[in-house]
Design goal:
With 470 residues, the protein is of the alpha+beta class. It has 7 helices and 23 strands.
C-alpha cells in the first residue's frame, strides 16, 4: 500500500512539474498556427511580435493588421489600414494559481488596450477596452468570457454625446459544440439634430461542430440570433420632429449540413415585431431568406483558394477570382442551388402584405460560352412567386411609389406636397386598373394578387405569357 501511495505521489509530482512546460509549448505553437491561418486570408495579417514562455506561464504580444487596399474593389469596404496590439497571458496547468485557484490545463486572457480610442472615448483609466479570458479544463472543455468596457464620448464641434453601458459575453466549447451568449444594456447618442437610443441587445449562437470542422469544412449545423428589445430615433429636421420606435428588432441565421450529400443550406431572417413612425403603426415586418443545395465541395475549394490570396494585388485577385469561377462554378451549379424569399411580409394600418419567390438553377451539366449567355441561364432557371395584399395596402404602397416618381419628374418641380399627393391619388387607381386589364394583376373586392412562373425560357404572369427580350 505504501509503495502504491509512493508511486502515486511521484506520478502526481511529475505531472505537476512536467505538464506545465508541455502545456506552454503547445500554447505557443497554437499562437503561431493561428497567425499562419490569419496571414493566409487576403487583407489581414497577424504577427506574434513578442513571446516569453516560462515553465508556468506565457506572455505574448500579437499585432493584427488590416490592409484596406486588398478590398479596394469591393463596395462599402474600408480603405483605411489599421492595426491592433493584443496582449496575451496564459498560466499553465494542471494547477492554476490565480485570484481563483483551479485544476485545469490552461487559463488564458487576451486584452486590447484601445489607447488610440481614448482620443474620442472615455472609460476607466486602468481598464483595457476589450478583454477576453478562458479556461481549458482537465477534460479538454473550454469556457470563456469577453467584455467591452462601458464608455462615454463628447464629440465636438458636432455636439454629439454618446454613452454605452458596456458588453459582456460568455461561451463554452467541448470539442463538438460551440455556444455563446452576450448582452449590452443600452447605447445612446444625443445631438442637436436628434436622439438615438438602443436598449437590451442580446446575442446567442450555437454551432454543432468542432473548430476544425468550422475552419476546414465551412458547412455545419448552427443557429444564431441578434436581437434589440427597442431602438428609438428622434430626428428634428426643418422644425418637424420624426419619431421612429422599433420594438423587438432581430436578425437570425441558421445553417444545416446534409452529411450524406455533403450539401448545406442557410436561412436568414430580418424583422421587427412592431414599428412606429410618429402616429403610423406597423407590425411583423419581416424578410425571410433561404439558400439551399450549397455544394460542400465548392465551399472547400473556395476555402483552399482563399488561402492563396494573401499577398496578391487587388487587380490580380480579380483575375484569379475569374479563373476560380471558370474552374469550379460547375461544381456549384450541378448541385442545383436555390435562393428563395420564403416570406416578405408586413401588417400595416391599411392591411396585410405578403410575397414569396423561389428560384433555382437546374439540369446544368456544362458551362456556356460565353459565360454571360442569357439564353442559357434563362433555359436553366426555374422561378415562381406570388405577391398578395389587401387592396388598401397595395394602393398605399403604389401611391408612395408614384409620389417619389413625381418628385423626380422635372415637369412637377415646384409643386407642393399636397399637390403631388393629390396627383398620385388620382393616378394610382388608373395604373392598377391598367395592370389588371393587362392580366398582370388580379383584383378582387378585397385584395390584389400577382403570381408568376419562369420555366423552360417562358415567363408567365397569372398564366399570361410575357415575351422575353431575346
Amino acid at each position: 500500500m505504501k509503495k502504491l501511495l509512493t508511486i502515486l505521489i511521484i506520478a502526481l509530482l511529475t505531472l505537476g512539474l512536467i505538464a506545465p512546460k508541455l502545456v506552454g509549448n503547445q500554447f505557443a505553437t497554437s499562437l503561431e498556427a493561428i497567425a499562419a491561418k490569419v496571414n493566409n486570408a487576403p487583407g489581414y495579417t497577424l504577427e506574434v511580435t513578442a513571446l516569453n514562455s516560462s515553465w508556468f506561464s506565457t506572455d505574448a504580444q500579437l499585432t493584427i493588421g488590416y490592409d484596406g487596399s486588398a478590398f479596394a474593389n469591393l463596395p462599402d469596404a474600408s480603405a483605411d489600414d489599421f492595426s491592433l496590439l493584443i496582449k496575451v497571458n496564459a498560466d499553465h496547468g494542471p494547477i492554476i494559481v490565480k485570484e481563483q485557484s483551479a485544476l485545469a490545463w490552461l487559463s488564458w486572457s487576451a486584452n486590447v488596450d484601445g489607447q488610440a480610442l481614448r482620443e474620442h472615448l472615455d472609460w476607466p483609466e486602468n481598464n483595457d477596452f476589450y478583454q477576453i479570458s478562458g479556461l481549458m479544463s482537465l477534460f479538454g472543455d473550454h469556457s470563456y468570457q469577453d467584455k467591452i468596457e462601458a464608455f462615454t464620448a463628447s464629440v465636438t464641434p458636432d455636439k454629439i454625446k454618446i454613452a454605452f453601458s458596456g458588453y459582456q459575453g460568455s461561451g463554452q466549447y467541448n470539442g463538438e459544440e460551440i455556444t455563446y451568449q452576450g448582452s449590452a444594456a443600452d447605447f445612446t447618442a444625443i445631438t442637436d439634430d436628434g436622439d438615438f437610443a438602443m436598449n437590451e441587445l442580446t446575442i446567442t449562437m450555437q454551432i454543432d461542430a468542432s473548430l476544425e470542422q468550422v475552419f476546414n469544412n465551412g458547412l455545419y449545423d448552427s443557429v444564431s440570433k441578434i436581437n434589440f428589445a427597442s431602438i428609438k430615433m428622434n430626428n428634428k429636421e426643418n422644425d418637424e420632429s420624426k419619431n421612429i420606435n422599433l420594438k423587438d428588432l432581430y436578425v437570425s441565421a441558421s445553417s444545416f449540413l446534409n452529411k450524406e450529400k455533403q450539401q448545406g443550406s442557410m436561412q436568414l431572417s430580418y424583422g421587427v415585431k412592431a414599428a412606429e413612425l410618429n402616429d403610423y403603426h406597423a407590425q411583423d415586418i419581416a424578410l425571410d431568406l433561404e439558400v439551399n443545395n450549397i455544394s460542400g465541395k465548392f465551399v472547400k475549394a473556395y476555402q483552399d483558394f482563399s488561402q492563396t490570396l494573401g499577398n496578391i494585388s487587388p487587380a490580380d485577385i480579380q483575375i484569379k477570382m475569374l479563373e476560380f469561377a471558370q474552374t469550379n462554378l460547375l461544381m456549384l451549379l450541378t448541385a442545383e442551388p436555390e435562393i428563395n424569399i420564403t416570406s416578405l411580409r408586413g401588417t400595416f394600418p391599411e392591411g396585410k402584405f405578403n410575397a414569396n419567390i423561389h428560384s433555382s438553377l437546374v439540369d446544368i451539366s456544362a458551362l456556356p460560352t460565353p459565360i454571360a449567355d442569357q439564353k442559357f441561364w434563362f433555359s436553366h432557371a426555374l422561378v415562381n412567386g406570388k405577391v398578395t395584399g389587401d387592396k388598401a395596402v397595395i394602393e398605399f404602397f403604389a401611391k408612395e411609389f408614384m409620389k417619389k416618381q413625381l418628385k423626380a419628374n422635372p415637369q412637377t418641380q415646384g409643386m407642393s406636397t399636397d399637390e403631388l399627393d393629390q396627383m398620385a391619388t388620382q393616378q394610382v387607381p388608373q395604373m392598377l386598373g391598367m395592370l389588371a386589364q393587362q392580366g398582370l394583376l388580379v383584383a378582387t373586392e378585397t385584395n390584389y394578387t400577382s403570381a408568376f412562373v419562369l420555366k423552360d425560357s417562358q415567363l408567365k404572369v397569372n398564366e399570361k405569357l410575357i415575351p422575353l427580350p431575346f
